[in-house]
Every structure is written in structure tokens, then in C-alpha cells.
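Submission checklist for the structure archive. All mandatory fields must be present; incomplete records are returned to the submitter.

[x] Identifier: Beta sliding clamp
[x] Organism: Anaerococcus lactolyticus ATCC 51172
[x] Residue count: 370
[x] Sequence attached
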Amino acid sequence: MKFEIKQKELMKALNIVNRAVSKSTNIQIHELIYFSTENNRLSMTSFDGEISIKTLADAKIIKEGVMAVKADLITNIIRKLPDELVKIELDGGKIKISCKRSNFNLVAFEYFDKEEINIPNTVALSIDNDKLKRSISQTEFATTLDETKLALTGILFELKEGCLNMVALDGYRVALKKIKLDYPGDFEDTEYIIPKRSLLEWSRIVSDDSKTSLYRNENDLLFASEDTIMLCKVIDKNFIDYRNIINDISETTVLVEKSALIAALDRAQVLSDPGRANLIRVNIEDRAMTLRSNSEIGDVKEVIEIDQEGEGLDIAFNAKYMQDGVRACDSEKIKLNFKSSLNPCLIYPTDSKHEGEDYTYLVLPVRLAR
């Protein structure tokens, strides 16, 4: 195998495939990047048992072939080379890399005869990358880290009634993003639980001004955008029926400036112990929201002006859980709906900047002894 490629182009491709290189494993095939040629372009693939990524790059292919090299080694070498033409050749078990006056000789690894990642001959669901990335960021933080609740470690993709519903919950809060979307009829009334890590890696790879095509590949899903493909395993478990959890019957409604509430929640956590959940008491009365927090080293009180409908209320929350939902709302003002001090709070953006998108965040209150 022999090819020539610009340093920047190769580095860009390496940054992509490194997303599926295992950083802590004893399995050698998961530490490698696999090079091959495809339609006179350079193909690079990596996989770690959870996801597989393949990307194509423009290169001058002098001699077709395949090779495998340690991912961290070639990445460090290429990163330190100047922005010039890089020449790479596999010759007699050695990989020769040269760029201007720099020359490296690396030991080649055995090329693992893996299953190729290719776009299946099926219909695809298409979504704008900026919309997908925004939706991932508005939901991923509400997944759980508890592996005994495997379904809740991922994000539910539910295709129903002309919408893509992305849902994450961990038992204490629910994040729901609803996107109006045209998709093939084959996808109607289907749902997949996609691992959080797979979606985060994909969101870091793709550019905002392109689209993602989503394909079903037997029991897995394949994501494709521009020159990159990612195959990810779905979580084969049943998701919780989130629709029975989100029940918006409110007695008190509050409209508040998002920036003011975030700043107040930030300050309310200054005196908290980093190792413990910081609880805040919220009092709503006479068009004012009062936040109180106390710890062994002191206490804090914040007062925010609000628009209020309904009765006054005393309630308590985990400050971080509440703040996560407020941050995720893409509007200058947000709406908070309350029923009682024992019922969940529902948070909505009031003037979303993105047409055809709706967001709902539910957070459970904390019951405090009086």
C-alpha cells in the first residue's frame, strides 16, 4: 500500500476515527486504525466493540492495499508534522512515513479481517445535523449512569405521528425533545434506545451545515453524514412509558428570565458541599421567586422578579437537576408549571428560536421535613 495525502486532511480523518478507538483495553484490534483504499480514496476504520466508525479522505493512491497501525502512535506523529504532503507506504511489514525532512518507520500490525461498514440498501431517515446536535445536548444529561437500569443509560428515539421524540430520564427528571420530521413510512411507530456515548461521539464528528442519514442495519443503527459512517449497537431493553410521567395539570404558573434564574441557581450552589446534592427551597409569592440554600458553612438567599399566575407555593429541588433543565431551554424566558409541593415541576421554553421543535423538562421535587 502506498499513498500521499495532505497533513491537514489526514489529521482531520484521524480525529474522526479516533472516536471509536478504545483508550483502555487489552484487545489489540480495538487500539488500531485500519487503512484501505475505496474508489480511489483513502478509507480509515476503527471499532471498540460498541461503535464502529469509517471515514473517507481524498488522497493520491499510488498502490492499493490495506494496513493496520496503532492509533495513538500514528496520530501523535501526524499531529507533529508540518502542513505539507505526507507520504505513507507499507513495505515488508514496516510502515514508512515521510514529510519534507521527517521520516518514520513503524511496525505494521496484522490487518484484522473485519466486517466492512457500508451504507445498506434501505430507506433512510434524514435530519439536519444542527437540529440533531441541539436535541442531543438537550437530553443526554438526563440519562442515568446506573448500569442496572440499562435502558435509561441511553436516549430513546421514538418515531410517532410525524415527529421524532428524543427522551432521556434517570428517575429524578425527564428531558423530552419533540421534532416535526418527514420520514419514510417504514419508520412510523418504531423506537430505538441509542447509547448516550454513541450519540455524543456522533455530535462531535459531524458539521452543523450538513445532514445525517439514519439507516436500520439488522438490529443496529447506522449513521451517515458526508464522508463518515458510524455503526452503533442499540440497547435491547424496554424504555419506561414516559407519557404517564409527564402530566401537566398545573395550579401555579411562573414566567421568568432564563438568565436570571440560571445566575441565581449558580449563586445558590456556591456554599454547597461538592460531594453532596445541593437542595434549594423555592418560595413563590407576590410575583417573586425566592431561592434559599444552606449548608454547614453558611446560607444564601436569592430573590427574582417573576410573572405569576395562581397560588403561592413552597417547594424544594436538587439545584443541579433544576439548573440542567433551565439551561437546556432555548429561549430568553421560560415557563415553570407547578401543581403542589409534592408534584413535579414542568419547565418549557416560551419563545423557542427553532420552528417545529418543542422541549419539555420535568424535575421531581425533594420532600423536606418541616
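[x] Structure attached
Curator remark: The two ends are 74 Å apart (CA to CA). The mean pLDDT is 93.
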